[in-house]
Design a protein that fits this description.
Helices cover 67% and strands 0% of the residues. It is mostly helical and 227 residues long.
Length: 227
């Protein structure tokens, strides 16, 4: 088994996520025109703290799974297009949220922001469960050596529980940020998932043994009883 350099993995993760968090922070607080944007800090705390805890867990217990989560390149063109579109809608969401705070467009009850934060954290918890159930879950569409098809746990309910978890994490963000207007950006996120899932399933049906049979067994792709 190939030995994984945990120090190098940590540096890669800090660079990757550090840049991402910095961009989010700049978008939020620069557009808000103030560091007193409480909802912005609430969102960053709800994002960074669980991610940091899970990163440390994977770094110690399963660095190979962490390394797969850090993969950012893939051969399929569709993923690149989805990544660009996804980046645009998320940046737009953060910019609109900051401007909303500065210009006072929305007046969202704090209770709604707290409920949205709880849903977001529940989504992250679901993400953790998925990673623990499927060590081969990665950000890129690929089949790894000795990969086994996972059909139990959450995978017995929907074929893509990780994407369901991402919906629970990302869709409440405008409410966590206290901005109704930023909903106009994030509503496009499910379209990215739909396209991504169709591309992924076409690939896995060809490359992963038993996946076609699994698709026939588990009817729903993303949302139980809906799709």
């Amino acid at each position: 088994m190939e030995r994984i350099d945990r120090k190098a993995l940590t540096i890669r993760a800090l660079k990757k996520f550090g840049i991402g968090f910095a961009i989010i922070g700049v978008c939020l607080f620069f557009c808000a025109g103030s560091i007193n944007y409480i909802n912005g800090w609430l969102f960053l705390a709800a994002l960074i703290l669980p991610m940091a805890a899970f990163f440390l867990h994977l770094l110690v217990k399963d660095p190979a799974a962490l390394e797969r989560r850090l993969l950012s390149t893939a051969p399929e063109k569709a993923r690149g297009e989805n990544s660009v579109f996804g980046g645009i809608i998320f940046l737009l969401m953060f910019i609109l949220s900051g401007l909303d705070f500065r210009l006072g467009w929305s007046h969202m009850p704090i209770k709604l922001s707290i409920i949205a934060t709880i849903i977001m954290l529940a989504g992250f918890l679901m993400f953790v469960v998925v990673i623990n159930q499927n060590r081969y879950a990665a950000r890129v569409i690929d089949v790894f050596d000795n990969q086994k098809l996972i059909t139990d746990g959450l995978y017995s309910i929907v074929r893509h529980p990780m994407y369901l978890a991402s919906l629970l994490v990302f869709m409440p963000i405008p409410f966590v940020l206290g901005s109704y207007y930023s909903l106009t950006a994030i509503i496009f996120y499910p379209l990215i998932l739909i396209k991504r899932i169709k591309t992924e399933e076409a690939f896995l049906a060809k490359e992963l043994e038993g996946y076609s049979e699994y698709m026939n067994k588990v009817k729903y792709r993303l949302l139980p009883y809906i799709w």
